[in-house]
Amino acid sequence: MKIAMIGLGKMGANMSRxxxxxxxxxxxxxxxxxxxxxxxxxxxxxxxxxxxxVSRLPKPRAVWMMVPAGDVVEKTVLSLAEILEPGDxxxxxxxxxxxxxxxxxxxxxxxxxxxxxxxxxGGTWGLQRGYSLMIGGEKDPxxxxxxxxxxxxxxRGDIPSTPGRDxxxxxxxxxxxxxxxxxxxxxxxxxxxxxxxxxxxxxAEGFDILRGAASESLPxxxxxxxxxxxxxxxxxxxxxxxxxxLDLTAQALSEDPELSGYTGYVTDSGEGRWTVQxxxxxxxxxEVLTAALFARFRSRQEHTFGEKMLSAMRQQFGxxxxxxxxx
Length: 327
Prior knowledge:
Helix content is 48%, strand content 12%. By secondary structure, it is α/β, with parallel strands linked by helices.
């Protein structure tokens, strides 16, 4: 297939590369001409404007956006709506709010343009590992774009099927899933990121306690000078708390055992707040996820080793650089 990619940052560029590697054609556009030139040199079809981008696609067209949620997505969708035609599809692969998806899909439906919201997880490692795709929208455009989703997703790999799912034909085992109608993809990704906040906070607090065991305020007999990098490596092997996040934690500690390259200022990109808001609307108790979100707010006033650990994990999986940190 041939698809367009708008936004060639950390995610969009590597997603384009993964699609090219799978044999698809990718027309690319970014406000930074240098990013377009780089992908063009790697085999993409570079465009100089949105009009130019759309003109390079066969009909029906598919345009994937990997741009920041909010005003940038809104402006891009409205601009594309003036260029695209009935039967074309816009895919928002960023972290938009699911209620915005519902509104945008309604506006585009009046023009006959399909809209898919695709929560995309994989960070800067997605080029090698593949991307977990959580898809919302109409059934027909989802089925039409399955070759694209399959190319971006990890595939089964060497992960065995969950017991009891041996006869399953769900694409979830391939790393992508049509979760439901418009907004469902970004809703699932929103909760995914809320859970991520909680998991990261648990690791961060645990390693902060380990490091604090050397405190001189403790009785000498209860004092332990523990090597967090070694413990992280230990827990990666056979522990029930092993995970990819722990792998990245171990890597961060191996590179910088004191995390001296981080201040501990931890930002949040919106999904954690929306998850807590959804919990309130549903009257669902979400103490851990809420506390994890509030811990990020606190980190902007005071910084602990645990908050440095959070910042290190964000840098490891997503390439997120601390706000205000000249690194």
